[in-house]
Amino acid sequence: MKPALHPRETERLRELRRYQILDTDQETDFDEIVALASQLCKTPVSVVNFIDEGRQWFKAEVGLGVRSTPLDTSLCGHVILQDDFVEIPDTLADPRMSDNPLCTGEPGFRFYAGAILKGANGLPLGTLCVLDHKPRVLDATQRQVLEVLARQVMRELDLRLALEAEKVLRREIDHRVKNSLASIGALIAMKARRSPSPDVRTALDDVGARIRSLAALHAEFHDTADGGDVELAPLFRRVSDELQQLLPGGVALTIAASEGTVAAGLANSLLLIVNEFVSNSVKHGLAERDGTISVTITVEQDDWQILCRDDGTADAAAAERAAAGSGLGSQVIRSVAASLGTAPAWSADGGMRLTLTGNAG
Hints:
This protein is α+β, with helices and mostly antiparallel strands. It has 10 helices and 13 strands. It catalyses: ATP + protein L-histidine = ADP + protein N-phospho-L-histidine.
C-alpha cells in the first residue's frame, strides 16, 4: 500500500526544507546515532530518514547501503501519520505493508520500530528507525533508547538552525554598523568642507580619519570570522595602521606578526586579544603620558605565541588585578584564552606585559 500524504503536507514539507538537511553529506554526528541504535536494539539496519516529496532520504544509515528510496515503498511514510513511536512486530501482518516488496522480498524487512522526528512546529519530518529481517519486539529500554536518540537528532538540527540564525543576525548587525559609520564619516566630511575655519576643518578631518579607521577595524573583525585561513602578517599590518589612527597622538603602536596562514578562528581571537590589550593600555598605563605599545605574534608549525607590552605606569598590583580579571578587558582576554585552551600570563616590568601561548592544530 502506498503511503497517504500527511493532512498538512505542504506545511510539513516547508518545515522540512527549513532545516536544510536534505541531500547533505554524511556526518559523524548522525552516523554515530544510527550505529548506536542498531547496536543497542540488536538490529541489522538503522536509519535517520526524512520523508521528502516523492522519496524518503537517508541522512545516516547502517545496513542499507543507499541514500534514498521511492516514497511508494516507504515504511516510514506510513509511520509519520501515527504516534510519536511506532513498533510493528511483523510487517506482513500489517495491511499497510503486507504487499510491500521491501517486506515480501528476500531478505525482507519483517520488523520495524521508529521514533518520529518532529520539527519545531510539531509536524513529522521523518524517523529514527530500526529494522530486522525477522519478526520480533523491542524491550522497554530499547524503545526508550530510540526515543532519546530521536530527540538528540532534532536537538542537533535545531542547534544548527539557531547558529545559522545567529550568523544571519550578526551579518545584518555588521552591515548596519558599516552603513552607520559610513554615514557619519560622510556627514563629517561634508561639515569639514563647508566650515570656514581651518582649525575646525583640521579637527573634523582628524575625526573623519578616526571613524574610517574604526570602520576598517570593524571590517577586519567581520571578515576574519567568516571562515577559511587568514594571512597573518598582512592582517596585522592593516590592523596596526587602523588602530594607530584611533590612538592618542603621543602613543605609538607596533605589531609584528609571523608570515603564513592560520585558521580564521585563531586569527579573530588574536585580533580580540590585541584590541583589548591596546584599549587597556591607553585607558590605564598610558592614560596620562606618551608611550609605546608593542605586540609580537609568532606561529611556528602548530605552536603560537602572542606577547603584548607597553611602557606605561602599570605595576605588580595592576598585573595582579588583570590576572584576577577585575576589568572587562582582562575578562575578555581570559575568556578568549580559555576558548583557545590556554590562559593569559600578566606581569609588570616598567609597564604591562601579557603573554599567551597555545597550539594552532
